[in-house]
């Protein structure tokens, strides 16, 4: 064996690719999981203060009618804010596309699961259909609202950061939420109005405004937590330049 053969001979260890030590993969995983879980939770309708009635002008404040994903879906926007603030628009866009693909894959898998022939002992076919069955119109509404809303949320935050740099984080978080959540809510309701029982213009306006205000309020309430998470990641992300 020549010296050149010895130099090119691989060692006895297997070869593997290096995994990034940053937090980006973890946030992408949480982001995607949040979207999937919240869309399943959204199959249940939820009513708060069902015995109460409160209106402010044309808006019906009580009872509060929403879906079961109300407490989890805003988390996707919070995680989107962290991704945009720390890693920028291109990296956040990649996470959004991954989440979009995961939602489509889940919808296909649920459809296939329902269509598969049931075993004789399985008695929950209709219950399964009611929980994970996806109406094409609702699926289109959810995907369109998510894609546009998340993109606008990220773009708005990054554009504001270009002007404010590391100052006024609160303005970036609130500003991006206002733009992204409003677009998400408006697009979803515009496409899915008939499928979710909205038949009048006043109900449509009420749904959009109340849903938008609720999601924005959640962002404001959890902002101290968002601040801490962003500060933690910035200090420990080796490639972030303060």
Automatic annotation (TrEMBL):
Keyword match rRNA-binding: no
The keyword Transmembrane helix belongs to this UniProt entry's keyword annotation: yes
Subcellular location: Cell membrane
Entry GO CC: plasma membrane
Keywords: Cell membrane, Membrane, Transmembrane, Transmembrane helix, Transport
MF (Gene Ontology): transmembrane transporter activity
Annotated membrane topology: Multi-pass membrane protein
Transmembrane spans: 27-49, 61-83, 95-114, 134-160, 172-198, 204-227
Superkingdom: Bacteria
Major subcellular location class: membrane
Family named by the database record: Belongs to the vitamin uptake transporter (VUT/ECF) (TC 2.A.88) family. Q precursor transporter subfamily.
Task performed by this protein: Involved in the import of queuosine (Q) precursors, required for Q precursor salvage.
Protein's UniProt name: Probable queuosine precursor transporter
Species this chain originates from: Rhodococcus wratislaviensis NBRC 100605
């Amino acid at each position: 064996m020549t010296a050149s053969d010895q130099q090119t001979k691989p060692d006895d260890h297997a070869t593997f690719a290096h995994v990034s030590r940053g937090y980006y993969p973890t946030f992408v995983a949480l982001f995607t999981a949040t979207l999937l879980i919240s869309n399943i939770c959204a199959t249940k309708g939820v009513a708060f203060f069902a015995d109460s009635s409160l209106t402010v002008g044309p808006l019906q404040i009580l009872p509060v009618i929403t879906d079961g994903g109300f407490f989890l879906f805003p988390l996707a926007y919070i995680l989107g804010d962290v991704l945009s603030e720390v890693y920028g628009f291109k990296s956040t866009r990649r996470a959004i596309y991954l989440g979009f693909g995961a939602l489509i894959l889940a919808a296909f898998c649920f459809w296939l699961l329902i269509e598969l022939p049931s075993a004789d002992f399985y008695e929950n076919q209709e219950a399964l259909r009611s929980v994970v069955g996806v109406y094409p119109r609702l699926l289109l509404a959810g995907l369109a609202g998510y894609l546009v809303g998340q993109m606008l949320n990220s773009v708005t935050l990054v554009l504001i950061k270009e002007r404010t740099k590391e100052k006024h984080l609160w303005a970036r978080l609130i500003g991006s939420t206002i733009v992204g959540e409003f677009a998400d809510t408006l697009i979803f309701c515009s496409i899915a109005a008939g499928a979710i029982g909205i038949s009048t213009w006043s109900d449509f306006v009420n749904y959009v405004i109340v849903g938008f205000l609720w999601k924005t309020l959640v962002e404001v309430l959890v902002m101290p937590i968002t601040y801490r998470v962003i500060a933690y990641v910035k200090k420990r992300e080796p490639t972030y330049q303060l």
